[in-house]
User: Fold this.
Amino acid sequence: MILKMKPVFQERLWGGEKLASRFNYSLPSDWIGECWGVSAHPHGESIVAEGEYKGHSLSDLWEKERHLFGKYTDGTFPLLIKILDATDDLSVQVHPNDVQAQELEGVPYGKTECWYVVEAEEGAELIIGHTARSEDELSDHIKNGE
Assistant:
């Protein structure tokens, strides 16, 4: 069974309007940076758009209709699929692993990411990691725009 979800749109300072032109979404503002296509996250939960489960949230289905998800047995639905439209630089991203997330935030999962770049403007770049060997060196790199 395929469940079609209503997207959840998130405004971001670096957002734009490409989600409308590229994916034909009707956007609620000109600053939409993220489309959450599949989400059980409390800050933007997917709702089934049509069919037998129309109007049900993804977490509700996870709770009451577990057979729809196969043999996955974790307590909460761990997947969040986003499409981003970044018209400007994004902030530095630091994501905890599961243990850190439980200790620091009291949530069951950290954040593991997989990026697939669908389209990029000429000159766009993705920076992964850094080469600093100490906190002071990292601070110097940041201050110097490196």
